[in-house]
């Protein structure tokens, strides 16, 4: 009887020690994971911070400290995204919202404890992309790099083909570019006007269902190009006939920036260039002779 009691006491102590040891290992792993995640978070490596929490969370899903730290980290990331959005740092906002959205399935067990839903991230990510596109496109419009502005919105509308706001802003950008071409034409700045009409024409075929909402069509753009080409060609011809070959060449080369395959303009440019070269050679020989 005494022996049996001693055996029971021995196994009880052994079991208690085992539980205590497991508890110690668990606390150590949890603390180590939290510390490691904090370091990664501080260094800006948000994905690795989430990976660290997720790994230990899967092992100890009921640990209250781990869950608390995991949720606080997720919320802090969301707050960083919100702050970036509010300060119009839309690039950083996109990075943060996109990261949380890609990892959101990991939060399914405790999503009800978060202050935001998955749809919030979807909406904020779309708005961040849209506002950044608007910001960049307007900057390119101001600098005259119209193609880059168009490329930005083309990419955005491919991501959100049914979004009315994206569609309307793309149309607004295109109309602004067309208005710039019309203004240059009115001011008799025919070379930039022709280049802008050409850019719009080259992009027109890719606009698909947007065409109906535009104030112009391919025929109107082509007509603008023809007007610019005709006036510039005649100006160049006038300079050529007056003996101002360099000015004629410069004018005709401007035409080739928006109508590069025009054979008549190419021929006139080549002929004037050849004559100009011959005249320079004659003048050089005369100088040497005297």
The count of helical stretches stands at 11
User: Mean pLDDT, nearest integer?
Assistant: 87
Overall shape: it is elongated
Q: Radius of gyration, Cα only, in angstroms?
A: 35 Å
Q: From the 3D structure, determine the CATH topology of one domain.
A: Serine Threonine Protein Phosphatase 5, Tetratricopeptide repeat
**Under the CATH scheme, which class of one domain?**
Mainly Alpha
- Percent of residues in helices comes to over 70%
Low-confidence stretches: 13-22
Amount of beta strand: under 5%
Order of helices and strands: HHHHHHHHHHH
Quaternary state, please?
single chain
Distance between the termini: 137 Å
- For the record, the CATH architecture of one domain stands as Alpha Horseshoe
Total number of strands: 0
* Helix-and-strand structural type: mainly alpha
Largest sheet, strands/sense/barrel = none
What does this structure look like?
The protein has 290 residues and is mostly helical. 80% of the residues lie in helices and 0% in strands. Helix 1 packs parallel to helix 3. The model is unreliable at 13-22 (pLDDT under 50).
